[in-house]
Amino acid sequence: MYYDSKEAKMLLGRSSDKIHGLMKSTAILQTLNERLKKKSTQAEEYKFEGKMFLVVRVASPIFDKSTFDLFEADIIVPSNVFDQIWLLFFILEHKKGVN
Fold it and tell me: What is the residue extent of each domain of the chain?
C-alpha cells in the first residue's frame, strides 16, 4: 500500500519527481480503510473453510507503525472475514545494510 499513485511511481522508479509534497496521516488511513473494505468484500465470496489472514504491505517509507498505532481507533475493519490482519512496514534502517 502506497500513500497515492504519485508516491508509488516515485518509489518504483517510474517518475522523475524527487519530492512528493504534503502527506497527511488521515489520507493513508483512508486508503487502508478502503483496502480493508475491498478485501473483506472479496474474501466473503471465497469458498474456503480454513483460517484467512490478510497481510497489507505498507510500502510508504513516510508512515510507520507508530502512525497506525496512534490512529488505531480510526481503522475500520468492515467484517470478521479474516482471522488476522497484519500490517507489514518498510523499515529504512534494514535497507541501509543491503547492497
Answer: 5-96
